[in-house]
Automatic annotation (TrEMBL):
Species per Swiss-Prot/TrEMBL record: Gossypium barbadense
Source organism, top-level taxon: Eukaryota
Protein name: AP-5 complex subunit zeta-1
Occurrences of domain AP-5 complex subunit zeta-1 ARM repeats (ranges): 30-156
Higher taxonomy: Eukaryota, Viridiplantae, Streptophyta, Embryophyta, Tracheophyta
InterPro entries: AP5Z1_ARM, ARM-type_fold, TPR_AP5Z1_C
Domain AP-5 complex subunit zeta-1 C-terminal TPR: 291-520
């Protein structure tokens, strides 16, 4: 017998003994030699091309039985089983066709029974991501629904282990996005900081997260929720009420009966669920996060999440169909004002939300007409807070830039126009924007005045653009802009802009050149009167509105000729 054959027999006996009812049966991972033996057997099967199928057939029954015993021992582990199970899963993926073994149930069992308990172990987490990256193509082709189903569990890997796993996680991330996970994935990404806070609180209250399944918390929460609801019905107290010192640590702990808590800590994708941000549990989490120093883990996820959103939005614009993107935009609008209360994090996330929303409108202007109702609702909230004001500004720009969805959506354009009219008249009749207190300091007054002027400028521009797209709205646009021009409000930029637009409307060709985008949206031809500068070298360009540059009055101030602005032949 050769040395290679002796090694094979030795490793096979090791696995066979562990798979039987031996001293290691309750926890096979406690045998330090077993992992090495399984790895060596897998290597033998890969290297012996001539006898590969025979070797695989001999070792498979022992490997499969070992997998089942390892899963059964997870309820009372003495050491992590994740690494051993990943090696066995690799064997199933490599040789499943030879022994007719469907790896899908085994993979799902690993996620549900093992990774849900050991995601906080940095070694298991890193090995899991490496396993997913090595087998990425095979998993996406043979098991396309696996990663999208378990994306909440995989997000726990990056939430708990942070930047050291970011590079590997970004490689896996595209596999998490599918038609079934596209919408639920977005709120889970945005809420990663709150997930970190929730996991940290679970660890403080229940001990180490390694080896204990958070799913057990969800199962035990049902009786507590029932008792809390009964208490609320009979005594009037809420689920979040609690006795004791309000300043104590216990008063800020998460109520396990809170539905948002259960939603945050789930392991599998069960669809898009509404997250009630006014619930007592979430309010306690956010207040505690504001009043206490941020942990290193929380700081890392606040930095990682915007980069994950970048990848998510890139995938959305490249791969997602219009129906999914159209359904996502109202979710973006709703979450714009409900983010984890960290100043830099809110800025980075909101910037990405708005950029993606505007890019979506640019790609499919019909979305504006289809989403008329949520857009009108957001315009009506322009006074509520600075972030809602900014959202309303961007929506005003999009409505005007894309003509309320285009020339084929006249009814939607008219309703959007009416909402802009209402917003305009409300601003003209009130000098207060945002918080409406009588006594305010100078800084707040200046900020509010600047916000009101900016909002008015956006609304005026949107009204002028809509009337340019839809000529039947011109009379109403003239009336609205005329009121602004005559109002002579303190900020001259507002009434001067209204006056300029009124002047442009007297010359339709110039109005089209200025107020209609020079690059048409997909499926929409150039509007008549739009200047095509690329034709300037061979064709005469008329209606060039030099006089509006810089909003200067009187003779033109420029000193340049046509060759300076028209492309030259090379």
């Amino acid at each position: 017998m050769s040395d290679r054959e002796r090694d094979w027999d030795f490793y096979l006996r090791t696995v066979s003994n562990s798979a039987r009812d031996s001293s290691f049966a309750n926890d096979p991972a406690s045998d330090p030699s077993l992992l090495h033996a399984v790895k060596k057997l897998c290597d033998f099967c890969r290297q012996e091309e001539k006898y590969s199928e025979d070797l695989v057939a001999r070792v498979y029954p022992h490997i499969n039985k070992l997998f089942q015993r390892s899963i059964a021992s997870l309820s009372q582990p003495t050491s992590p089983n994740g690494i051993l199970l990943l090696v066995i899963l690799q064997f199933f993926l490599d040789f499943g066709e030879v022994v007719l073994h469907d790896a899908d149930p085994s993979l799902r069992t690993f996620f549900r029974s093992c990774l849900s308990r050991e995601f906080a172990d940095p070694v298991v987490a890193a090995a899991t991501l490496d396993f997913l990256n090595v087998n990425k193509n095979k998993l996406l082709f043979s098991f396309p629904n696996l990663l999208p189903q378990f994306f909440p569990l995989l997000l726990k890997l990056i939430a708990w282990n942070g930047e050291k796993l970011e590079k590997a996680f970004l490689k896996v991330f595209p596999g998490l996005v599918s038609p079934g996970s596209f919408l639920p994935l977005f709120p889970s990404l945005v809420d990663l900081p709150i997930l970190v806070v929730a996991l940290e609180k679970v660890e403080r209250s229940s001990g180490s997260l390694i080896g204990s399944s958070i799913a057990s918390i969800q199962k035990s929460a049902a009786p507590e929720m029932l008792l809390a609801l009964m208490d609320e019905a009979y005594t009037g107290s809420t689920i979040g009420d609690g006795g004791g010192d309000s300043e104590s640590e216990e008063s800020s702990t998460i109520d396990v009966a809170d539905p948002v808590f259960l939603e945050l800590l789930k392991d599998e994708n069960d669809g898009l669920a509404e997250r009630h941000w006014t619930s007592p549990g979430v309010a306690a989490v956010l207040q505690a996060s504001i009043n206490s120093p941020q942990s290193d883990r929380l700081k890392q996820i606040l930095s990682i999440t915007p980069r994950l959103l970048d990848m998510y939005f890139t995938i959305a614009l490249h791969d997602a169909n219009n129906s999914l993107i159209c359904a996502l935009i109202p979710i973006l609008m709703a979450r714009n004002s409900t983010l984890f209360p960290d100043k830099n994090y809110m800025y980075e996330v909101r910037r990405r939300l708005l950029e993606f929303m505007l890019a979506s409108f640019q790609r499919s202007p019909d979305f504006i007409a289809l989403l008329k109702k949520p857009i009108v609702d957001r315009l009506g909230e322009a006074y509520d807070s600075p972030e809602k004001t900014e959202l309303a500004l961007q929506l005003c720009w999009a409505v005007g830039e894309h003509g309320g969805g285009g020339g084929s959506h006249k009814d939607a354009a008219r309703e959007l126009f009416e909402s802009l009219e209402l917003l305009l008249y409300e601003n003209l009749s009130s000098s207060r924007l945002g918080l409406r207190q009588e006594s305010i300091n100078s800084d707040s007054r200046n900020f509010r005045k600047s916000s009101q002027s900016r909002l008015l400028c956006f609304v005026i521009t949107a009204i002028a653009k809509l009337a340019t797209y839809h000529r039947e709205l011109l009379p109403r646009a003239r009336v609205a802009l005329g009121k602004v021009a005559r109002s002579r409000i303190s900020d001259s930029r507002v009434w001067r802009r209204a006056r300029d637009y009124l002047g442009l409307m007297d010359d339709p060709a110039i109005c089209l050149s200025v107020l209609v985008p020079s690059q048409p949206s997909h499926g929409h031809p150039h509007n008549p009167g739009t200047v095509n500068w690329n034709d300037g070298g061979t064709k005469m360009i008329a209606h060039i509105p030099f006089y509006i540059l810089g909003e200067q009055e009187g003779p033109p101030f420029h000193d340049f000729s046509f060759p300076d602005i028209l492309p030259r032949r090379r």
